[in-house]
Amino acid sequence: MAVPANSKPLSLILATPYVKEVLGPLLAILAKLDIAKSALFYYVVGIYSLKAYRHLRARGVVTTGKEVYTYVSQFVIRLILKLPSTRKKVEAQMGKAKLDVENKLVPKGPDVTRHLALPDEGKSIEWILEEMDKMDSELNGKTGVWKDGKLSGAVYHGGVDLQKIIVAAYDRYCVSNPLHPDVFPAIRKMEAEIVAMCLKLYHAQDGAGVMTSGGTESIVMSVKTYRDWARKVKGITEPEMIIPASAHAAFDKGAAYMGIKVHTLPVDPYTRKVDLKRVRRAINPNTILLVGSCINFPDGNQDDIAGLSELALKYKIGLHVDCCLGSFIVPFLEPAGLSGGDGKGKYKLAPFDFRLPGVTSISCDTHKYGFAPKGTSVLMYRNAELRAHQYYVNPSWTGGVYASPGLAGSRPGALIAGTWAVMQAIGSKGYLESCRSIVLTARIIADTIRSSIPELYVLGDPPASVVAFGSKHPNVNVLEVGDAMSKRGWHLNGLADPAAVHIAVTRLTVPVVDQFIADLKDAVKEAKLAPSGEGTMVALYGLGNSSAVGPEMVGELATAFLDSLYKA
Ligand SMILES: *Cc1c(COP(=O)(O)O)cnc(C)c1O
Questions:
Q1: Is there a domain that residue 268 lies in?
Q2: What are the backbone angles phi and psi of residue 553, rounded to the nearest 5°?
Q3: Quick one: which of 21, 178, 521, 566 is 20 to 30 A from 228 by CA?
Q4: Ligand 1: which of 253, 322, 365, 374 to mutate, judged by most atoms within 8 Å of the beta carbon?
Q5: 45 CA to middle of ligand 1, Å?
Q6: Domain assignment of residue 380, yes or no
């Protein structure tokens, strides 16, 4: 039996006859306990070494060093912020910033009518519509701001005819709830058909799917599915997943909800695709899921899904392809004759769907380029066995056997009817045509930036509908370009790391592309000639990563923003 090095005093005591006789048996037990304690100690050390080794291997020495640095500096900053003198200053600044956020969102003043309690008597439809008119005009007609098309994403179709179709479907099925398929059989059928149509678009053979309330729910549910699959099939209790830095925040959200460790790996600065070598190094026996986007939100590029598919097959793990944004654009690039690029080696689309054998699930947002009503998305799996890990079943609930596919219990059947109606109304030809006009518009924007705005560069080689641009000119801050675009009425997205601005082209942007290009050229000139060094985009996206205090303060402001959403 191995005696641990730290038990010497114990064996000395054991040598005396008295001890041998009286306390011997007791101490023998204690000695055994001691060994057990040491064993436990080495076990714990071993576990943590393995964890540290895997962490280092996944993220690399440099990133881990940076993480440690950030952790320590944020700790120090937090200490400094606790000093009464600094705290006062920071609190004053923060208070002002929070008030700014609130004032931008919440209408104030004695003229604003507020409805803070139920009316005694119910109101008429005329009164309700009038009150809505009033609210719209009180808020400076802001509700109509999207109609001029000067925005990135947000509203994907907005056509009057389509709106009529959605409202008709909604009108008809407004009380329906797919939780009761026996009461609303048509809704059940429509949901199954929407899923089937999407599976076909993404070339699934024996696929299965569900509808959710949006891209985020699709992603969060897929993360849950892989967690439960890995626990049941592989016995993994400390799951980890690997995502590209360009993946949507919904993956982090899902991992945070489900208690999964995330390795976020940087993308190649030129191609904007995740580095496959790093993905391979980050895989360990606890890995449950790889993620790739087609296309990603920040810069509209696609990851090397074929490469990820090979890794997923080799290590027998899941691969989720996020086509939330790609939705009804990427499956139509090939039939539109645009997947081969522009004929000059640019804008090519590589394989991304279930035809790649390692792809195990795909999320596709009907409420983006599917033009369906907001609150709908489709989550597809390679097979029904995998989908079953998404379900929640409680056979012994007091209220009866409870089974639901996703997070929600009751769901709006009207949205399913609206989605089904939109898909029928547009059809393959309609989606093909939208894909063509939207993607060609995005390519005009990217081409123009490349050929005639020398201060800017396009991030990667985006094959579909999103174009992001950064600055390669030392005197042009691209976030200031974004601010200058805001002054010209554009609602674009600012990106961090690297600083960039993006536009997701929609049906509404197609007719205003010339205006966009003219404004962009002007905005670059303005940012170059009169750099202000500040502005909304600079303040928000510039601060986020660049200083130790950044994330903490931005986090606090973001919380204040969410709070002010609920100020009546
Ligand atoms: C929009 C988007 C999502 C999330 O979708 P929501 O519908 O906003 O929840 C996920 N991934 C990508 C790439 C997206 O663009």
A1: yes
A2: -70, -45
A3: 178
A4: 365
A5: 41
A6: yes
How many CB atoms lie under 10 A from the CB of residue 189? 13
CA angle in degrees (0–180, nearest 5) for 388-389-392: 85
Block mean pLDDT (10 aa), the chain, length 568: 48 56 74 86 90 89 87 83 83 84 83 90 96 82 74 88 96 95 96 98 98 98 98 97 98 98 95 96 97 97 98 98 98 96 93 98 98 97 98 95 94 97 97 97 97 97 97 94 93 91 95 96 93 72 60 81 89
Distance 157 CA to ligand 1 centre (A): 16
Q: Report how far residue 542's alpha carbon sits from residue 402's, in angstroms, rounded to the nearest whole number.
A: 48
204 CA from centroid of ligand 1 (Å): 22
pLDDT given for residue 33 in this prediction: 84
* Radius of gyration, CA atoms only, the chain: 28
Question: Hey, which of 222, 294, 324 would you mutate to test ligand 1's pocket, going by the most ligand atoms within 8 Å of its Cβ?
Answer: 324
Q: Cα(462) to centroid of ligand 1, in Å? A: 17
Q: Which domain holds residue 232?
A: 205-407
In the block, which residue shows the tokens 């976030």? 479
Query: For residue 2, what pLDDT is reported?
Result: 47
Structurally, the chain folds into a number of domains equal to 1
CATH number at residue 381: 3.40.640.10
Which of 520, 472, 455, 467 minimizes the C-alpha distance to 495? Answer: 467
Cα of 409 to ligand 1 centre, how many Å? Answer: 22
Is any atom of ligand 1 closer than 6 Å to the C-beta of 250?
yes
Is the shortest distance between the CB of 248 and ligand 1 below 6 Å?
A: yes
Q: Is the CB of 215 under 6 A from ligand 1?
A: yes
Q: Are 442 and 434 in contact (CB under 8 A)?
A: no
Residue 18 belongs to a domain: no
* CB atoms inside a 10 Å sphere around CB 532: 12
pTM of the model: 0.89
Query: Kindly report the CA angle at 513 between 338 and 165, in degrees rounded to 5?
Result: 75
Residue with CA closest to ligand 1 atom 4: 215
**Residue 325 CA, ligand 1 centroid: distance in Å:** 6
